[in-house]
Structures are given as structure tokens and as C-alpha cells.
Design goal:
Its EC number is 4.1.2.14, 4.1.3.16. The protein is α/β, with parallel strands linked by helices and 221 residues long. It contains 10 helices and 8 strands. α2 links the parallel β1 and β2.
């Protein structure tokens, strides 16, 4: 039941912060600022040096148990390329796993431990293969290669596919992706680039609030 609950929570949250940084301390600070701004689903990429330290620290501080709690957030791992890394992130506290590509053994491992796995898939063949392996959510990556219209096109023959575009999603097109049927959207560098450039991480909180407001407005209309 926990796996299904997490998937539903991610869908309801709508916005996933995909965070990359040069150190675990920096990515933890980014995550905290994003959470303060209302983004409650955080993906720490394994490209961050000592990323497991950041995942452990965040998973100890935040909990997915009660969406009404002050410390509510869902912490996951991204850029997971193999089952060994997937297992390490799960042991570190990651509650979901994201991969840029479709890797059978990684999916099988995550299914074994009932952890949501979101592999990258861009073709009907990829999506079909992922569904046959029991994948619940597919990552459309890089999203900037496509327009939002790709989602209804893919879901025409595969209406059961839950698709989350990542890469290229911004405040100007978030509403289009959600209206097109996106399960959720992943926000990468657009969330953090100004903060990194200026050193003012409060800008992440401001940008996170803007994303959440855009998502909520789209869902209400």
C-alpha cells in the first residue's frame, strides 16, 4: 500500500524538484529552500558527489507519512543507472527512484522492494516494455525535445501510461503539460540557476512558490 500511496502523493503534488549540485551540503540547502516554497517532492540526482549523504540527511529530516505535517516531503533519487545504485539509494532513505533510461534489472530491483521506479522512456516500444515490467510512472526525458502534445499522442494507443516530462518544463509551459495529461512535471535547472548564479538560495523558495501556484491554478481551471 505504501508504494501506491507514494505514487498518488507525487501525482497530487504535481511538481518534482530535480536537484543537482557540487556537494551534498549545497543540494541539501537547495532541497530545503524548495520545500519551504511548497515543492514537496525532491529528487536528488546521483551526479551529486556523495549524494547518498544528502539523501540520508533529508530523509531523516522529512517524512512522507503525513501531508499535513510541517516536515512533510518525499525524498527520492535520480539519475540511477543500475540496480546496485538503486539499492544503495533505497538503503539511504530514498522513497522513489528515477532513471534517465529503461534498465530492466533496475526496475526489477525496485519492484522487489516495492519502491516506485520512474524510468526514462520516449517511444511506444519503451513505454510498452516498461509497462510490462510493472512500471507505474514513466519519465519523458528530455522533455525539451517535445511539445506537450506528445502526451496525448502517446496515450492514444497507451492510455494506461502515466507520463512525467522532465527537462525543459518551465513556468511558461507548465500549464500546457498538465493540461495535456502529464502525471506530474520535473523541474530542473530553471528552479535553481538564478540562486546558483547569485548565491542567494532564497530565490529557490520564490521560484518554487511560483511553480506551485502555476500548478494549482492549472488544476483549478
Amino acid at each position: 500500500m505504501k508504494k501506491l500511496k507514494l505514487i498518488q502523493q507525487i501525482h497530487e503534488a504535481g511538481v518534482v524538484a530535480v536537484l543537482r549540485a557540487d556537494s551534498p551540503a549545497e543540494v541539501v540547502a537547495m532541497a530545503q529552500k524548495a520545500i519551504e516554497g511548497g515543492i514537496k517532492v525532491i529528487e536528488i540526482t546521483m551526479t551529486v558527489p556523495f549524494a547518498l549523504e544528502a539523501i540520508t540527511e533529508l530523509s531523516k529530516k522529512y517524512s512522507s507519512a503525513d501531508p499535513a505535517a510541517d516536515n512533510y516531503a518525499i525524498i527520492g533519487a535520480g539519475t540511477v543507472l543500475d540496480p546496485e545504485t538503486a539499492r544503495a539509494t533505497i538503503l539511504a532513505g530514498a522513497e522513489f527512484v528515477v532513471s534517465p533510461g529503461l534498465h530492466r534489472e533496475t526496475i526489477i530491483l525496485c519492484n522487489r522492494y516495492r519502491v516506485p521506479i520512474m524510468p526514462g522512456a520516449v517511444t511506444v516500444s519503451d513505454i510498452t516494455a516498461a509497462l510490462e515490467l510493472g512500471v507505474d510512472v514513466l519519465k519523458l526525458f528530455p522533455g525539451n525535445l517535445y511539445s506537450p502534445s506528445v502526451i496525448p499522442s502517446l496515450r492514444g494507443p497507451l492510455p494506461q501510461a502515466n507520463i512525467m516530462p522532465t527537462g525543459g518544463v518551465n513556468l511558461d509551459n507548465l500549464g500546457e503539460w498538465i493540461k495535456a495529461g502529464a502525471f506530474a512535471v520535473g523541474i530542473g535547472s530553471d528552479l535553481t540557476k538564478d540562486a546558483v548564479k547569485t548565491g542567494d538560495f532564497s530565490l529557490i523558495t520564490d521560484k518554487a512558490r511560483a511553480y506551485i501556484e502555476a500548478f494549482q491554478q492549472t488544476k483549478q481551471n
